[in-house]
Amino acid sequence: MGLAAITGTGVFTPAHVITNDELVTAFNAYADAFNVNNAADIAAGDVVAKDHSSSDFIVSASGIHQRYVVEKSGILDPQIMHPALPPRSDDQPSLMAEMALDACTKALAKAGRGGAEVDLIICAASNHERAYPAIAVEIQELLGARGFAFDMNVACSSATFGMQAAADMIRAGSARCAIVVSPEVCSAHLEWRDRDCHFIFGDVCTAAVLEPEEAAKGDHFRILSTRCATQFSNNIRNNDGFLRRAHGQMQDRRDMQFMQEGRRVFKEVLPLVVGHISDHLADAGAPPEGLKRLWLHQANKAMNDFIGRKVMGRTPTPAEQPNILQDYANTSSAGSVIAFSQHSADLIPGDLGLICSFGAGYSVGSVLVERG
Ligand code: COA
User: Fold this and answer.
1) What is the pLDDT of residue 325?
2) What span, in angstroms and rounded, lies between the C-alpha atoms of 247 and 18?
3) Would you say the CB of residue 301 lies under 6 angstroms from ligand 1?
């Protein structure tokens, strides 16, 4: 069996930007109105008053300066506080498929391939707009692709788990030209009314084309090895599942949006990720000092600084461990692929790098690549 290679990547970036200051202004107006409307209950001790958010806190706690979103007016309206997206008829492309089409088209252009050459699409994302038909099958139709397509969800690790699945299928011969596409509409499952997390997420879509290395038409990254791991935790959770109606839980409940114990995630995920990457590199015979680049999951700058230091045994330069979270915020599974897509063109043949994503599950996925 030959090796699989990443032969092209593409990023769809939504048109709307929300800066921290815009976000905080909207949140604080919402909090003030909430406190006025609930003044009696707050005074009686039955309801907790909402504190203001602050841009300084957001930057120092996360490193995030702004985020892209598919719709911003609803998010910034203190009366709404979520994206306001018009519903689409079944005859229209779904939002995720539309974002995916843009990212896939860019990735295929880089790979020198057309949609008709694709024979596998994995739509790997942390939420899917509907249960079925799979979004991936709709993307297959829009691209004019052949073969087969399916959705998968491993939260923030979806893209790297998808790459392992696609690379394995390419090595086994069941696919020749695969796309792993990650349309992440995080703005729709973020709780914008909670100051502990309202700054965390943004929207984006990434796509990566994977082919047998010998089929690559130009510059590519050969996939030397992949590694995935999971370990159950409730510390990042969303309960908006299909049993909601059956449970009589159709009301606007906090746990229908993203919830996390941020501090515990920090403490528990960091050693998991450091151990995972170190073991992966050791087993692949690729010592960290030989790594030219680390494209990490983009949740939090302090987290990435810590992981980079531990893995490399020194503080990596910003060029060695590029962050994009200051511009995009946490884009769930797409973050490490944006970093890879935007910060890999300067590597030369033989250079090694590692893509790693991590998050809910817990889950960690890593892809060791060499510039071909
Ligand atoms: N503005 C101002 N103050 C805020 C605030 C905001 N928006 N949000 C929280 N605070 C306050 C808290 O109430 C707390 O106050 P206290 O000390 O009086 O109790 C203080 O700031 C610290 O809050 P804390 O939540 O402990 O901050 P943190 O340093 O842990 O940073 C995260 C929060 C979410 C950025 C951080 O925990 C994190 O990134 N965790 C991991 C996230 C992650 O990777 N998740 C995976 C998702 S895929």
Assistant:
1) 98
2) 36
3) no
